[in-house]
Every structure is written in structure tokens, then in C-alpha cells.
Design goal:
The chain has 937 residues and is mainly β. The chain has eight helices and 51 strands. Helices cover 6% and strands 55% of the residues. The protein is globular, with a radius of gyration of 30 Å.
């Protein structure tokens, strides 16, 4: 079995990367950017970019990028020329010493030989207007995105904050993306053109907060399918491209602190915490002690031997009180290095290190009902210490029409939690006190080697990638203990709930688990331009492979009462003394093992895909992209049932996934788009295993379902969009989705309310999406309104699940996880002259089914809530420094999960049963960023 990536290994990686910071400062001011085709939005390779009136110039590389360096401070004019395109001259470009002026240029194809001799002159301001939203306007599929320039002007610190600004998306738990109100199950993530494994082994989701925003080149969310995109999605494909060769040499430092209204400077409780756990790693003394035999051998031990084995475990049922939770801390250092070589070649790297920690408190209430009879009513105070360490290291070499890049991402995070519970178990008329200690450590390593080339033969473009990802999730020593006071029987002392006979997963338990996953991927894409009806067209062909190996195992231990004579007075001891070594004895407690056959599994996932597509124009206004993707997927899970019988779950599907995207340019500012596609949604490996995990907080057991099938999805979209001017858009979209065998999370019937997964018969969703982004200069021409942009994105969604083949008292309901509406709105102010900007964000997601019930047990909904965030930033110190203030969840509205008791799905007080409420607290953070230029002035 592998071991966790150790801190020592991580430090060696850091030292290696720091050793590469032997840089060569160069140049003065610079002009850098990209050159793109106005009609297609594609970057152009080999374009001549030179200073007007001089011979100083460069050609754009394989990514369409250029850099003119060694410029003294002042204003310049550059000339851009390319075969069959009208020459363009850009004036009034201001260059400052030690700074990079970004200028992206749009080239227009010449319609005649005469026009090729004409020079189009524009100012730098006009050209900036031309390039803004070019990608979205020219993308044949329906997509939304945000560029590095827009990110640079925002106060966002990480990718999850950036994604809040993208149309039709929202962020859950400050890190998971929701597209069009669909749960994360329906999304896929690409990092630098390669499929990224989930950062959460138990769900198909990626924690976007681990990527610093200043490392992002651009983000695109594709809402419609294309043959060159993964076929496993129906909500969105999130494409994140990280930077590699910077335009300048720099060192960037950031330091920040945070406050939470419920925890910071207030009393704080936590279990044991060791020094290394401040950096995302856990101390090895939390593992199962050396000397504990295997499960098979442990069950053969005598009682006395089990007592001796139990004494090897640390008595870590204890809580430490702190006078106040510390403010959150966040640190980041980024280094950008670039060296221009001979023959229009360059080499560079971008390296980033991040460290964060924080302490939070969650105040919640939990209830359960059987019909309308309340079973229990608990109050939980949950305390959590979180820490994470991350690193990003990208290296690249570019020469003319070739580029090779080596990109790496590493993150390790730890959550150390303690929950104190009190309340009433109403069925037995018992008062309850409970204690739970949990620690989870997760790590992710992603490394990719990629290349991009333009060949002389027919201008063929080739890009390829190969990569490796490693992830783990380690949960050492999850502990829980409950005390009961039988008040209806006149009891005066709380007694610990310790089982007789065999260990319980729910009472006086200690749980250990570890999950390791290795993923290998490779991809190849070819793009061949050709002419059709005298218009530029492209034929694309490609394929990819992803192979994953997963290994999971868990062991469940628990204290039981000794057989025969038992000292019952031990049950009244406090939780920090009850399982002391002295109390493990023939008349006291025994450490038993309750590990079941289904508590381990290993799995393989093998995905092979290929595609062919054509992107062509039938006229200057009509463009179509069409083709098909073939995906051959194989999943195998080796597990066992509860009788010990080996169970091999195999799922193999061969899917042909056609798609077509049509774009019609009504005029230069207006597009009409139409899309139709077939996609799939596959179950996660964990969902196919029999393993059952007991969650002390929710008092539910999560169990997989080996009979799950993949969902087949049909998607139809239409969109009308208008781009009135730079940075502004008005669009209206309509979409329809049909799901065959959609996968849902449901509550299983029985005395114990387990959570499992099942396929519904079918489901339909359809909706309208409105987006408006408008500058407010029409109110008043004063500078303030010139710098304010208002934006709103609103969706109304209808969904229906066909339940004819399932046991239920109804025949249809909403799709689990689908919200009926979604609202994102905001005001953004940015003043370029004084560096002041602010952003006010509002988000609301409508009520949605969290857990599907059964006949006699109504569905559980998550109530919609209003979330308001505010960001303020101010540049200072000659724009080298920046101060940022972020206020999150200002309203701190209560999170409510309720059991819906009538046909009105919205929450109705005194009608619906409240199942869970929580408040997480409003947050505030303050950070300072400073940028050192390493270039000579």
C-alpha cells in the first residue's frame, strides 16, 4: 500500500523549484499580447509585429503571442501585417519603464487584393474594445468565459471567486461550481486540455479554490457539447488554462487575514492538533498502531488479547478549549521568469506557492421524523480547523511554430473537526450528549507534458498532451461517543452508549480509512485548414485515453462491554477518561473490530475516446461545427457483499455522441446560435461499491449501488445574443435536456435511513436563461458611471422525473439537485486612473431536492437563500501594491433543509418538517499584494 505524499517530499519539490529561480533580468518596458482573426477568433501564427518606422519586430508564436522588449518609456506605434490580411497600425501605445503594456490585436481578412494594400489605423483604446468578448462572439458553441486581463482587474484571489463572475454559474461551499442549477455530477473539468480527476473522491467535483487567480490565463465554460470536448457532461465543461511563459520577470507576494462572525475571537474547541497538521499533513500517530494484527487475525484474538490491543490506541477522546479562534491566514508567493533566446525562441516559467489556514464554527440543528412524529431533535456545535499548502510550477519553451510545456499542480489540505451535540431522543425519552472527532487529509498532484506545433504541410496544427495525476483521501481515527440520560425512568446520570457483543459503527467507534487513486492520460489533436465555398474551414481529428486505478480500504473498531461481570459505573465517566488504558480490562471495556467484507474495494476506469469534426462556413454569416465523438468506457469495481461473497461490478459502454453547433451572424453585433448533442453521465467508482460509511453528523449511512447505469443525455440549446459595445452583452437562451436513467441520491426505506444512489426512469429539464451586462454611462456621462457595469444572469428551469417504474406515491417530481431558478447579479466599478475597484455580488439558487424520499417519507429539499458578497480593492505604491477587502455571505442567512409535506415545494413554516438548519457565519478578509519587477529599468 502506498503512503501519503509526505511533507519531506513536498519540501524537496519546493527546493527544486526554488533552485530554478536563477534568473536573468532583462529589458526595460515591453509591449505584449496576442493577434486573433476577427471572423473566427482563432489566434494567428507568424504575424509580423514591428515598431513603426524601424526594423525592430517579432513574429507571433504558435499560440499567436508576441513580445516587443527593450523599449524606453514613451508612446509607440506598431504595425501588424500578415498574408491575405489588411495591415493594421496601432497608435498611442504607452510604455512605462519596468512594466508590460498588454495589447491584443484583431486582424481582418482582406476581401480583395486592393484591400490588402490598405492600412487600417486605430488607437490602443479602440483596439482594446475590439478584442474584448471576441472569443465569446466567435466561438461556434455556446460558452462563457473570463480572460487573464479581466481577472487581473478583479479582486479575486482564487479560481472559485473568478467563476462567480461567469454567466450561468454559481459556487457551492466557496469551491464547487454549479452550472445552470445542475449539481456538480453533470460537469467536467479540463486543466490545460487534459481531464482533471475529482479533488473529492466521493463525488464528481473539483475544488477550484486551490488554483490562485493570478496563475490563470483564461477560463471557458462550455454549455453545449462539441466533439473535441469530453462527452461526460450535461451542465458544463470548465476549461482552465494556466499561464506558462510570462511577459516579464517578477516576484509577487500576498499576505492576508480573515474574520468569521461566528468563530473568530470566540471560544473555540478542538481535539488534538499536532504541529505538522498546520501544513495540511497529519501526524502518523493517528494511524492504526503498530502491533495491531490484520482484520482476519484480530477476530481470532482472545478477550484478553483484544484488551491489550486496545491499550495500543491513543486515548484521544479529549477536547482542548481555546479562548478565541484565530483569524484566518493566507500567504502566496509567485515567481515569473522569462528569457528570450536566439532565433525568435524563448523559455520561461511561472511558479507559485500558497499556504492557508482558518478556524470556523457551524451552529446547526438536526431533526428526524417518521411520518409526522418527531424522532429526535439535536443541536450541534461543529468546530473546524482547516489548513492547506499548494504549489504550481509551469515551464515552457517556444520557438516559432513549436511549443513544449511542462505543467504541475500540487495541493494538500486537512480538515480537523470536533462536534459537540446535545438534544433529545424523543422516541426513547432520552437526553443526549454526543462527541465526534474527525480528521480528513487530501492531496492532489497533477503533472502534464504538452506540445503545440504548426507544420509546414498545409498549415497542419498538432497539439498533444500526456499526464499523470495522484490523489488520496486519508481519514485516520474518526471517533464518536454518545451519552444518554433516561429521564423518564428517573435517571440522574448520563451514561455512555457502549454496545454489547460486537463493535458498532455508530457508538463508541473508531474508524480508519484510506483511498489512493492514480490516473494516466494522453491526448492528440490535429487541425487541418481547408477552403469551402471560398471560406476558411477546419477539419479536426483527435483522440484521448484516461486510465485510473483506485484502491480503498477501511477498518472499523469499537469499544464494547466485557462479557460476564462489567463495572457499570464506568459508563458515567467523562468522555476524556472513559477509555483510558486502565478501564480496558476483563470487567471493563474491550476493543472489538467490526470491519465488514464490503469495507474495501479496488477499481479500474478505462476511457478511450476519438472524434472527427468539421468547422466550416456556408456563407460569411452562417457557420456550423458538426461531427461525432466516440467514447468507449470501462469501469470495474472489485468489492464484496455483506456475506463475504466477492462481487465484481463491470460496466462497459460504447457511446457514439454526435453534436452540431450553428452560428448565424445577423450583423456585426448580433448572433443567433443553435446546438444539439448527445452526452452521457457515468456513475462514480465509489457509487458502484457496496461500502457503507456512517456519518455521525447526519446519522445516515451512505451506501453505493452496484446496479447503477450511466445516464444518456440529449441536449438542445438556442441562444440570441447582442454585443452593444465592448464588455456589454444582452442574451436570451432556451434549452431542453432529456435524461435517460438519470442518477439520483435517495433515502432508502427501512428502519435505518440509509443514503444510496439509483437510476430514475427518465427526466426532462427545460429553461430560459437571460444575461445582461451593461455599462451605466447612459445614466450620466460622469466618470463614476462610465466605470460602473451592472450585470445579471437569471435562469428559470423546469424539471420532471418520470417515476412510473419506481415505488412511490407520486408519478413525477423535480430532478434531484436541479434548482427551479438561479439568479446572479452584481455591480462592478473599476477606475483605471486611481486603481479603485469594487464588486457587489448577489446570488440565489431556488429550492432543490437534496435527498429523494420514498412512499411515506417525503423528499428533502434545500431551501433557497440569499447570498451577498462584496469586494473592494485599491492599487497603491505606483500600482505595485494592492489592498483587497472581501466580505462574504454578508446576510448569513440560515441554511435550511426541510421535508416537503405538500404539493408546494417552497418552504412553508409550520407545514414542512425542518430536517437540518445551519449558520456558517459572515466572513471578512483583508489582503495585501506587492509585485516586484525583476527586469532592469
Amino acid at each position: 500500500m502506498k503512503s501519503q505524499l509526505t511533507l519531506k517530499k513536498a519540501l524537496l519539490i519546493i527546493l527544486f523549484v526554488l533552485g530554478s529561480v536563477l534568473v536573468f533580468a532583462q529589458g526595460t518596458g515591453k509591449i505584449a499580447g496576442t493577434v486573433s482573426d476577427k471572423k473566427t477568433g482563432e489566434t494567428l501564427i507568424g504575424v509580423s509585429v514591428k515598431l513603426a518606422g524601424t526594423t525592430k519586430g517579432v513574429g507571433t508564436d504558435v499560440e499567436g503571442r508576441y513580445l516587443l522588449g527593450g523599449l524606453t518609456a514613451g508612446k509607440y506605434t506598431i504595425e501588424i501585417s500578415y498574408v491575405s490580411y489588411a495591415t493594421k497600425k496601432i497608435t498611442d501605445i504607452e510604455v512605462k519603464a519596468g512594466a508590460v503594456t498588454t495589447l491584443n490585436v484583431v486582424m481582418e481578412e482582406a476581401s480583395s487584393q486592393t484591400l490588402q494594400t490598405v492600412t487600417i489605423t486605430a488607437s490602443v483604446k479602440q483596439e482594446s474594445v475590439n478584442t474584448l468578448y471576441l472569443k465569446q462572439k466567435t466561438n461556434v458553441s455556446i460558452s462563457d468565459g473570463i480572460s487573464a486581463d479581466q481577472i487581473k482587474r478583479s479582486p479575486d484571489r482564487n479560481t472559485s471567486e473568478v467563476l462567480k463572475r461567469v454567466s450561468g454559474t454559481s459556487i457551492q461551499d466557496n469551491k464547487f461550481v454549479i452550472v445552470r442549477g445542475l449539481s456538480d455530477r453533470y460537469n467536467s473539468t479540463l486543466l490545460n486540455n487534459a481531464l482533471l480527476p475529482s479533488s473529492e473522491p466521493d463525488r464528481k467535483a473539483f475544488s477550484f479554490d486551490i488554483i490562485p487567480s493570478n496563475m490563470i490565463d483564461n477560463i471557458v465554460i462550455n454549455k453545449t457539447a462539441s466533439p473535441d470536448l469530453p462527452g461526460d457532461f450535461s451542465g458544463g465543461v470548465v476549461q482552465v488554462l494556466t499561464k506558462d511563459i510570462p511577459s516579464e520577470n517578477y516576484v509577487n507576494f500576498s499576505v492576508g487575514t480573515g474574520y468569521n462572525s461566528q468563530s473568530t475571537f470566540k471560544k473555540f474547541y478542538l481535539g488534538d492538533k499536532n504541529g505538522v497538521e498546520n501544513f495540511g499533513y497529519f501526524n502518523s500517530n493517528r494511524n492504526i498502531p503498530q502491533g495491531i494484527p490484520s482484520t482476519q487475525n484480530y477476530t481470532q484474538l482472545t478477550t484478553n488479547q483484544k484488551i491489550d490491543a486496545g491499550k495500543l490506541f491513543n486515548n484521544s477522546f479529549r477536547t482542548h478549549q481555546f479562548n478565541g479562534a484565530n483569524p484566518a491566514q493566507a500567504y502566496q508567493m509567485s515567481v515569473g521568469l522569462r528569457k528570450n533566446l536566439k532565433d525568435n525562441a524563448s523559455i520561461g516559467s511561472i511558479i507559485s506557492f500558497t499556504y492557508r489556514n482558518g478556524e470556523s464554527k457551524n451552529i446547526s440543528e438536526r431533526l428526524e421524523y417518521e411520518g409526522q412524529t418527531k424522532q429526535y431533535d439535536y443541536n450541534d456545535d461543529s468546530y473546524k480547523f482547516s489548513s492547506s499548502v499548494g504549489a504550481l510550477a509551469n515551464f515552457a519553451y517556444v520557438k516559432n511554430n513549436n511549443k513544449i510545456a511542462f505543467k504541475n499542480l500540487y495541493n494538500v489540505s486537512l480538515d480537523n473537526s470536533y462536534t459537540s451535540r446535545y438534544g433529545t431522543h424523543l422516541v426513547d425519552l432520552d437526553s443526549i450528549r454526543g462527541y465526534s472527532y474527525d480528521l480528513v487529509s487530501k492531496s492532489l498532484l497533477n503533472t502534464q507534458l504538452e506540445g503545440e506545433h504548426k507544420l509546414n504541410w498545409n498549415e497542419l496544427k498538432v497539439n498533444w498532451n500526456m499526464g499523470y495525476s495522484y490523489s488520496d483521501r486519508l481519514q485516520p481515527d474518526l471517533k464518536s461517543l454518545t451519552y444518554r440520560l433516561d429521564y423518564d425512568q428517573g435517571a440522574t446520570d448520563y451514561e455512555a452508549v457502549v454496545p454489547n457483543g460486537t463493535a458498532s459503527r455508530t457508538d463508541a467507534s473508531r474508524f480508519f480509512s484510506e483511498l489512493f487513486e492514480d490516473s494516466y492520460n494522453a491526448g492528440l489533436n490535429l487541425s487541418l485548414p481547408f477552403s469551402f465555398l471560398k471560406e476558411k474551414s477546419t477539419f479536426k481529428l483527435g483522440g484521448m485515453k484516461q486510465y485510473k486505478l483506485r484502491d480503498f480500504k477501511a477498518r472499523k473498531f469499537g469499544y464494547i462491554k466485557s462479557f460476564g461481570s462489567f463495572e457499570s459505573n464506568l459508563l458515567t465517566l467523562p468522555y476524556n477518561e472513559i477509555f483510558a488504558p486502565a478501564n480496558l480490562k476483563p470487567t471493563g471495556f474491550v476493543m472489538d473490530e467490526g470491519t465488514e467484507n464490503a469495507d474495501k474495494y479496488d477499481a479500474i476506469s478505462d476511457l478511450n475516446a476519438g472524434y472527427a469534426m468539421v468547422d466550416t462556413r456556408f456563407s460569411k454569416k452562417l457557420r456550423a461545427s458538426f461531427g461525432a465523438r466516440i467514447e468507449d468506457s470501462y469501469q470495474k469495481v472489485n468489492t464484496a457483499d455483506f456475506s463475504g461473497k466477492n462481487v465484481k461490478v463491470e460496466k462497459q459502454y460504447f457511446d457514439v455522441l454526435p453534436s452540431i453547433n450553428i452560428s448565424f451572424n445577423l450583423n456585426d453585433k448580433t448572433n443567433l446560435r443553435l446546438s444539439a448533442s448527445q452526452t452521457v453521465t457515468r456513475p462514480e467508482l465509489r457509487e458502484l461499491s457496496n461500502f457503507g460509511f456512517f456519518d455521525y453528523i447526519s446519522k445516515r449511512i451512505l451506501v453505493g449501488n452496484p446496479d447503477l447505469k450511466r445516464s444518456q443525455n440529449t441536449n438542445i440549446d438556442v441562444k440570441y445574443e447582442v454585443f452593444p459595445s465592448a464588455g456589454q452583452i444582452i442574451s436570451l437562451s432556451g434549452y431542453y435536456k432529456y435524461f435517460k436513467n438519470p442518477i439520483e441520491q435517495v433515502v432508502s426505506s427501512g428502519s435505518v435511513k440509509n443514503i444510496t444512489f439509483q437510476n430514475a426512469n427518465s427526466a426532462k429539464t427545460y429553461g430560459l436563461e437571460l444575461e445582461i451586462r451593461k455599462n451605466l454611462s447612459f445614466i450620466n456621462k460622469e466618470n463614476f458611471f462610465n466605470n460602473v457595469t451592472a450585470y445579471v444572469n437569471s435562469s428559470v428551469i423546469f424539471s420532471t422525473v418520470n417515476l412510473n417504474s419506481l415505488v412511490s406515491e407520486i408519478t413525477s417530481r423535480a430532478l434531484q439537485g436541479q434548482s427551479p431558478y438561479l439568479i446572479n447579479a452584481g455591480l462592478m466599478y473599476s477606475e483605471p486612473t486611481n486603481g479603485l475597484s469594487f464588486n457587489l455580488l448577489y446570488n440565489r439558487i431556488g429550492q432543490r431536492i437534496s435527498e429523494v424520499g420514498y412512499q411515506g417519507y417525503a423528499d428533502i429539499y434545500e431551501k433557497g437563500r440569499n447570498v451577498v458578497d462584496f469586494q473592494l480593492s485599491k492599487k497603491m505604491m505606483k500600482n505595485k501594491g494592492e489592498l483587497r477587502l472581501n466580505l462574504t455571505d454578508i446576510l448569513n442567512e440560515k441554511i435550511i433543509f426541510y421535508q416537503n409535506n405538500n404539493t408546494k415545494n417552497t418552504y412553508q413554516q409550520n407545514v414542512d418538517n425542518i430536517m437540518n438548519t445551519a449558520r456558517t457565519g459572515a466572513g471578512a478578509s483583508l489582503s495585501f499584494i506587492y509585485n516586484f519587477s525583476l527586469d532592469k529599468k
